[in-house]
Amino acid sequence: ISHKGFILTTIIVNCVFLALDDGDENSKTSEIGDIADYIFTAIFTVEMLLRMTAQGLYSCGRHSYFKDNFNCLDFAIVLMSYIQFLFSGANFTYLRAIRIVKPLRVIKALQGLRTLTTALGEAITGLINVLIFFSFCLFVFGILGMQVFGGRLGNRCVQSSGSVTIFLQDRACWPNSALDAYSCGDGEVCEHYGQNPFYGVLSFDNILVAWLNILQVTSLEGWVEVMNYCSDGVSTTISTIYFVSIVMIMALFVRNLILAVIFIKFNNEKNKAKEQETTEN
């Protein structure tokens, strides 16, 4: 078995022991897990020291141990393991949570996962630009939604019977029947109810709640229902254009833009890894 295969197998077995830990420090399973933890830490320590000896710490060129971010991650994990051992006798049970970082070693062991992780890190700059574009669209659609739907989703069809006003249904309406919005029936009047749908959450009365509803639309969860309420309260045509534009630009286009940025960075890192492997061979 090769060195990489041995380390990868050790990492997987270590993850299995971590998964079998029942959290009870006095149980037999926990005792076996602690013993295995010492063994695995010793193996990873030896592997780390061998790499440091072979590659040098920092001043031996670009292949030095601490010039590789994944080696730094491995060093930090080993160091945290010793911190856990050092305070194992104290009543610091939360230090056992340090174990959750140990499976991160698999990132270093698998080249494809290393490439993907590096690509995600390199894509942050491009994703910031996408985030700026998304924020700009959020601001524009928020202002537009306030101008079009603000204060209009609280209208309801009412029917007056003497001194009693009966609100017929939880559906927005529009008093001007010329628009393609929901119009009240005979003997009914469209009046302001005072509360927006969904206990006031579905609203465009201020910029914050408008952003909240726009973000819901961009998640593509329940956006049709939001559009239907706005169609009843203002106009079907206007609401359809508004919400379909949000879905097309902020949901689909931005999502594909994010994937494109990550894909480009992933291909770049993949090519770099191939060139580095060719150079080393």
Automatic annotation (TrEMBL):
Where in the cell? Membrane
Q: Which GO terms describe its molecular function?
A: voltage-gated sodium channel activity
Note whether NAD occurs among the keywords.
no
Q: According to its UniProt record, what is one Pfam family this protein matches?
A: Ion_trans
Q: Which UniProt keywords apply?
A: Membrane, Signal, Transmembrane, Transmembrane helix
Question: Ion transport domain: from which residue to which, for each copy?
Answer: 6-273
Recorded hits in InterPro entries, A to Z, give: Ion_trans_dom (IPR005821), VGCC_Ca_Na (IPR043203), Volt_channel_dom_sf (IPR027359)
Cellular component GO terms, alphabetically? voltage-gated sodium channel complex
The name of this protein is: Ion transport domain-containing protein
Q: What is the lineage of its organism?
A: Eukaryota, Sar, Rhizaria, Cercozoa, Chlorarachniophyceae
